[in-house]
Specification:
about 90 residues, alpha+beta, HU Protein, Chain A, two-stranded antiparallel sheet, elongated
Length: about 90
């Protein structure tokens, strides 16, 4: 599913124009990105949580030179954790 598909679904369910639905979808996604960039978590009951996870520094192998190791620095990455309701819904399919 793409963002255009989401816009179409919002149009069909709400009766908004595609332009208005695109603004709604873009605003929702921008809000999620802005909140995560501030280091805050987002919880949508019945759907899941978006949160920031800290990845520890680690050593990895260079694929071009397998004997050479490369230091990968610590970093922050966004993750999604599905709610139990969402997991149950997916398991039914």
């Amino acid at each position: 599913m793409t963002k255009a598909d989401l816009v179409k679904i919002v149009c069909d369910k709400t009766g908004f124009t595609q332009r208005d639905a695109k603004i709604i979808v873009d605003s929702f996604l921008d809000s999620i990105m802005q909140t995560l960039s501030e280091g805050k978590n987002i919880e949508i009951r019945g759907f899941g949580r978006f949160k920031i996870k800290e990845r520890k520094p680690r050593l990895a192998r260079n694929p071009r030179r397998p004997t050479e190791t490369v230091q990968i620095p610590a970093r922050l990455t966004p993750v999604f954790q599905a709610s139990n309701e969402l997991k149950a819904m997916v398991m039914q399919k």
